[in-house]
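Predict the 3D structure for this chain.
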Amino acid sequence: MSLQLTFHKTGPSGFGDGRRGDLVLTGGPKEIRSEAFSGGTLNHAGTTAAIPNGTYTIRLDIRGIATVHNIVADQDDPSIEVLAPFWGIQQIPESVGGRNARWEWGSIRAALNQTKSETGAAFRGNYLHGKQRPEDYTHGCICERSETILRYLLGLNYRQYGHVTVIVK
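Done. Predicted structure below.
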């Protein structure tokens, strides 16, 4: 069985050119639906766009829990500390190095790895993640505030479901 997650942009999020949308997971034992949003503020690629349409991959076989060792200086502003890139699915504790990392990331984040057919800066560094911050914007990523699909993905047997294809349209 192969899993597919689709983020279908349905309208504006209310922040810049961010987008709200439907997030649907298919191909597993059950279909799961959730609401999500993307973009709306300046992202790492220097644009204010929602995540670009295309194909991404979530690696369920790469797992971890964020620790103080995952905190690095932001590449655009070294005075700001951020979580280092992680290429799989990662749990975020309530406190990482004395900071509330869940404010921006929620309790789980999963890297949306670019595929060979999707190149360019806007396709790199995106995640599917939760968020405690009340405003509906994120830096190009897809935010699933409820974390329904994220919790489901984290609970899957990664030997059976090694990766998830993600379609953004």
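DSSP finds two helices and twelve strands in the chain.
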